[in-house]
Amino acid sequence: MKILIVNTKDLLGGAARASYRLHNALLAEKADSYLLVQDKQSDSHKVISQSSTREKILGKLRPLLDTLPLKFYKNRTSSDFSTSWFGNNSLIRKINEINPDIVHLHWVNNGMIQIEQLKKIKAPIVWSLHDMWAFTGGCHYNGTCESYKVNCGMCPVLGSKKETDLSRKIWNRKLKTFKELPNLTIIGLSKWMKEAAKQSSLMENLNVINLPNPIDTTVFKPFDKKLSREIWNLPKNKKLALFGAMAATSDSRKGFSELVKAVNALKITNLELVVFGSSEPKTSPKFNFKTHYVGTLNDDVSLTSLYNAVDVMIVPSLQENLSNAIMESLSCGTPVVGFNIGGNKDMVEHKKTGYLAKPYNVFELSLGIEWVLNFPNQNKLLKNSREKVLKEFDSHVVAQKYLELYTKILN
Fold first, then answer.
1. What pLDDT is recorded for position 280?
2. Which of 47, 134, 188, 365 could cross-link to 193 by cystine, CB 3.0-4.6 Å?
3. In terms of CATH, what superfamily is 2-214+394-410?
4. CA atoms lying within 13 Å on the CB side of residue 157
5. What pLDDT is attached to residue 248?
């Protein structure tokens, strides 16, 4: 069985890391897996990109070209919105030339694949949803808007007051395309994403299932805390709380402002904060605690040592699918505190592997941080967190489930 995973990138970004991990997990099970990307950063011969000069130039231009229709919406917000207006016919030809038995799509925006081009792919398609884009009129997360359950239009992300706006047009294009894709299987990476897809008007009649991302637990594993702190030059006599994500301080969905309020409400004094995924902002928030900004981390070894250096991971996201950061932290034995939203409860078991606060209640988020830091048996939290990941998200466990799915589709 030849499997072709398709994602915009292979290393940079949450979806890239997740798809690359699945690819490697399948290879470890002796599966014939390949990863096709628009922007290749690794040196793996199993990762394929279009190598011609023309395609490399177009690969840089496509993300820009795909945003052109947004120029007509002067009141649009900063939230992500993809048009799927610009595609790549040569990439579709490449997919069919590789001749896989299964094509497994992940994040394919930024002008990589136009929605209508899915009909040209000859093999059965599996599509893992890293956000809500596949079943909306263009936004990646809906916020408080429920229009994706009907037909989109008057899109708040576009700042539109018109029913037949760009979001309605994109919704109509998706509706027509999905009706012509009999061999399409949708994967909600979290139970929440699966339910959201099933509630959408675009995917209510499609085959939607739940399967998580895998994680290599031989890489993300418990490690000596004192040594980890020495590596990062962090204090050994303090409690340390960690916050991090892609665009950690600039993406409002990641909850940085909620983090500031929750941390400043803490009654603990012997605490310092560590932030990764961003350098210190130009206008730095006033934390009541010393804060260490360690910047963007792209390798698993650095991440593993940082998770092991701290006592708690805080994930205050306002919307979250299946957070890589939560899974990585728990795999290292570090408990997580976050809001009880999205896919967080798939991984964080309340007062067992961390703490789930009522959505957007920063005071309760603060209580959760204190609960973890003051818990009398830290080794128990470590053991619970590690066992949760080993049982449900380990690469071998998850890869087997994907191989079973592929086999079922082909049969």
1. 79
2. 188
3. Glycogen Phosphorylase B; (3.40.50.2000)
4. 26
5. 62
Looking at residue 285, its pLDDT comes to 75
> Fold for domain 225-392?
Rossmann fold (3.40.50)
Write out residues in the chain with pLDDT < 70, as ranges.
51, 246-250
Q: Give CA–CA dist 17/298, Å, rounded.
A: 9
Q: At what angle do helices 362-374 and 256-264 cross, to 10 degrees?
A: 60
What residues contact residue 40 under an 8 Å CB cut-off, 6+ apart? 9, 10, 47, 48, 49
Please report where in the chains the tokens 């191989």 appear, as a residue.
Answer: 403
34 contacts: CB under 8 Å, gap ≥ 6: 2, 3, 4, 5, 23, 46, 47, 48, 98, 100
Q: Residue type for 221, please?
A: K
Sequence-distant (6+) residues with CB within 8 A of 388 are 330, 347, 349, 352, 353
- Burial (CB < 10 A; 0-12, 13-18, 19+), residue 181, is middle
CB environment 58-67: b (16+ within 10 A), e (fewer): bbeebbeebb
